[in-house]
Amino acid sequence: MKAKLFRSIPFFVASVLFFMGCGPSGDKREIKKMSIVLTSEGPLYEGSNTATFDWKVDFKELLNETPKQINDVKFTSVKVKLDSDTLNNMVSNMVLQMTSGKLDMLKIAFLEKLNATDASAFTIADKQKKFDEYFNQEKLTFVLDYDLKAEERNDNLNFNLEFDLEIFADF
Amino acid sequence: MNIRNIIFFLAFQTIGTAVFSQSDEGDRLTGVWEPSNGKARVKIERISDKYYGKIVWLRDPIDPETNEAKVDKNNPDEAMRKVPLKGYRMLKDFTYAGKDEWTEGTIYDPENGSTYSCVIKMKDANTLDIRGYIGIKTFGRTDVWKRLEVKKKE
Fold first, then answer.
1. Interface of A with B in 23-62 (CB under 8 A)
2. CA-CA distance, B67 to B54, in Å (whole number)?
3. Nearest to B103 by CA among B51, B152, B31
4. Could you write out the three-class secondary structure of A31-89?
5. Distance (Å, rounded) from C-alpha B74 to C-alpha B77?
6. Alpha-carbon span A77 to A96, nearest angstrom
7. Given an 8 Å threshold on Cβ–Cβ distance, is B54 in contact with A127?
């Protein structure tokens, strides 16, 4: 029994080291309640519409120091609130994505319906691979697709987005 | 203004015009298109410098199994399987390569949840050849899409 136990220790140690190696490298930093406003320019029609926001990433401002290399990024929370609660019934099925330069557009999160008054939380994508590549760019574009029930609106529609990020980076 | 400034100004203007007309030419892809099977209509638009197409209409919008609006139930990411197909971006990240061709993009098939490399060739102002492939263009399938609001020849 003892011999069997001793024989299994190297495998245990090896698997612990393996899983430690799989995790993101670098120092972990958190950005809480980052706010951006995505705008959809009117006129807007019933059906699928899009709001966008160009974000010039400035880590010196966000983290108080500039990372040499971003190794991994994870969205841990994404919330949205419209300018007016009266619009909440008109907007649904929101898909948040990001794109940058030559990088492909990736899905970040999805929200089916908005809460009546409070900010509404998105369901975040399980797969957040390659997100670091976007945050190593100077600029990235957030794209929010949504369904509008109102027949037509001539004014702009603003989406106040608030998100939390976990960043693993070399400083 | 000395001669050096004039040359610099003219060169800058020429480059600017060339870049502008390149993206202008690429914008011919924007509009609403229908695949040959007539099951959907796809609106192609430009975001930043790339082109994307999203489903704006479905012939059969209701899933007979659930009696609700069709969703992306075959998405490899389980968290994203409730995303409705109406409004879905099935064409992504195309750049205009010149000569009526948009490349480096992908096409998503919601029927099996697979994403393929894709090239778009504009045969005329109202017809597209959409070729999806894995790896090499030779091993792929081409579908002909028609523009919904037909553009007259200029």
1. 47-48, 50, 52
2. 23
3. B51
4. EEEEEEEEEECCCEEEEEEEEEEEEECCHHHHHCCCCCEEEEEEEEEEEEEECCHHHCC
5. 8
6. 12
7. no
Cα–Cα dist A103/A136, whole Å: 11
Query: How many CB atoms are located within 10 Å of the residue B55 CB?
Result: 23
B87–A145 CB contact, under 8 Å:
yes
Shortest Cα–Cα distance, B117 to chain A (Å)? 12
pLDDT in tens, chain A (171 residues): 555 655 666 655 555 545 445 567 789 999 999 999 999 998 888 889 999 999 998 888 888 888 888 999 999 999 999 988 778 889 999 999 999 988 999 999 999 999 888 899 999 998 888 889 999 888 999 999 999 987 788 889 999 999 999 999 998
Tokens found for residue A91: 């907007």
